């Protein structure tokens, strides 16, 4: 996790003269949550980073930048049982997300195994995929990591309501385009570092 951010938060807290419990009370979390931030086992989300910046008297952008620079390359996956769409979509994702590790899967079960072994920041999922639908796959991925952003890809707008009920971040009609991906990146529930090229 983000050790640079962990060390910065601890340093700023000590400079302010706060105990972990005092800072926890100021940002409405438990002391153990602050301890996890400071040992790097948990990363505060963007909303909490905003609260921390006010509490510690620093710019929000500074903390976000430290979190971004110290985080590893994000894992992005695309899951579609149509290999033509999958092979066409992968280069689009790699172009828009040059600093991410982009991996494609034509079998949902392989995507699940990958997600168990790797922290997935963003998943683009087809909805109709035979036995396991993208809607079910979304729920499984969120059980593995609740901070995974999921964007559904489909040729049918009728699925939009069902898609929103899964906790997904977004919904795109096929075909996948750079402009469409860029638009979805602005709507992520859990934003992550996109790399210098995106700044």
Structure report:
There is one protein chain. With 199 residues, this protein is of the alpha/beta class. The chain has 2 domains: 3-70, lambda repressor-like DNA-binding domains (434 Repressor (Amino-terminal Domain), Orthogonal Bundle), CATH 1.10.260; 75-198, Rossmann fold (3-Layer(aba) Sandwich), CATH 3.40.50.2300. Helices cover 51% and strands 14% of the residues. It is built from 10 helices and 5 strands. It has helices spanning 3-16, 20-27, 31-39, 46-56, 60-70, 83-96, 108-117, 134-144, 160-164, 178-185, and strands at residues 75-79, 101-105, 120-126, 149-154, 170-173. Strands 2-1-3-4-5 form a 5-stranded parallel β-sheet, with helices on both faces. Helix 6 (83-96) links the parallel strand 1 (75-79) and strand 2 (101-105). Helix 1 (3-16) packs antiparallel against helix 5. The longest helix is centred in the first third of the chain and has 14 residues, at 3-16. The chain is elongated and about 60 Å long.
């Amino acid at each position: 996790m983000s050790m640079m951010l962990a060390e910065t938060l601890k340093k700023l807290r000590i400079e302010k003269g706060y105990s972990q419990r005092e800072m926890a009370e100021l940002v409405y979390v438990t002391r153990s949550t602050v301890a996890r931030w400071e040992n790097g086992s948990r990363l505060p989300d963007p909303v909490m980073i905003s609260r921390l910046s006010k509490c510690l008297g620093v710019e929000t952008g500074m903390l976000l930048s430290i979190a971004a620079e110290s985080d590893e390359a994000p894992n992005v996956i695309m899951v579609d049982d149509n290999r033509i769409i999958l092979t066409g979509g992968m280069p689009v994702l790699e172009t828009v997300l040059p600093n991410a590790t982009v991996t494609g899967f034509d079998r949902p079960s392989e995507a699940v195994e990958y997600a168990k072994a790797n922290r997935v920041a963003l998943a683009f999922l087809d909805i109709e995929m035979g036995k396991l639908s993208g809607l079910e796959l979304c729920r499984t991925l969120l059980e593995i990591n609740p901070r995974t952003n999921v964007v559904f890809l489909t040729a049918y707008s009728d699925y939009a309501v069902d898609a929103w009920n899964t906790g997904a971040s977004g919904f795109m009609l096929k075909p996948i385009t750079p402009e469409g991906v860029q638009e979805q990146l602005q709507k992520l529930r859990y934003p992550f570092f996109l790399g210098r090229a995106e700044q």
